Amino acid sequence: MRRFFPQTKLKAMLGKPGGIAVAAALEAASQNLESLRGAAFDEVAKTAAKLHELVSHDSFDRDEVYRTANELLGHASTFGWSDVSEVASSLCDYVDSKEPMQARIAQLFTTSICALIQLDKETDESARREIVGSLKKLSQRSAK
């Protein structure tokens, strides 16, 4: 049996130094993320509205609420909206708990997420922290 290992351009390039500096790559990545921030905000708002609609009725699908909250968590955390992602995570914890789900509590989470999206990030930092802290306590209490 004969083995054939052809020489490729890519294989030859991998052994040679080149490319861009790490700092330049990080700066370019940061600029790319910034260019996507507006579209990401729209996606976060759209997912939050979908989540709010899902829990607006007295009976709803827990799995669908969990999937949508987890999707929101991913979108928000990717772009550094830690408060929105923390509340989405707390909602996931609440939905995942063994307790019977109450629509009004799930609605409180989604209403808070929508409020966090609307609040001015710089001027309302203390209000944002208070909302997040209260909802974390609520989800932890429900998980016991």
- The quaternary structure here is single chain
Largest sheet report: none
**Which word captures the global form?**
elongated
How far do the termini sit from each other? 64 Å
Topology:
Blueprint: H1 9-14, H2 22-54, H3 62-78, H4 82-96, H5 103-118, H6 125-143
Helix pairs in contact: 2-3, 2-5, 3-4, 4-5, 4-6
Short description:
The protein is built from 6 helices and no strands. With 144 residues, it is mainly alpha-helical. The longest helix has 33 residues, at 22-54.
Explain what the structure shows.
With 144 residues, the protein is mainly alpha-helical. The protein has six helices and no strands. Helix 2 packs across helix 5 (103-118). The model has no long low-confidence stretch (mean pLDDT 83).
